[in-house]
Known about the structure:
Lysozyme; 2 domains; three-stranded antiparallel β-sheet; 8 helices; elongated
Amino acid sequence: xxxxxxxxxIRHEGLRLTPYRCTAGKLTIGIGRNLDDAGxxxxxxxxxxxxxxxxxxxxxxxxxxxxxxxxxxxxxxLVNMAFNLGLPRLQHFxxxxxxIEQGHYSRAAAEMLDSRWARQVKGRATExxxxxxxxxxxxxx
Length: 141
């Protein structure tokens, strides 16, 4: 049997896609990655972020038929909110979502700011609401 090192390590360590405690009590994920002591690299964090963005975009496309009709920046706003809140909590922003679907971006921005979420995330909400309202990242208004 000419097993690769990767195959042998997977066979010995196992593959776990959710965090668990190893026999030494360390928080571990994947194929024996000790998160307590080793953590992850920036490259790994960015790879996970890219995968999470793809997942959030796919969820939004399934949930809202009109998502692809939005400008890329307004799509980014919804992806950002879904990333922060999760789709189930984002779907509670019914008045905001209705306003977006109807193209009433100022009203959608006002709905974003009139929320417990906005009070919790403060500057993030202000920036995202401005992007939703103006459709422009560079507009300071």
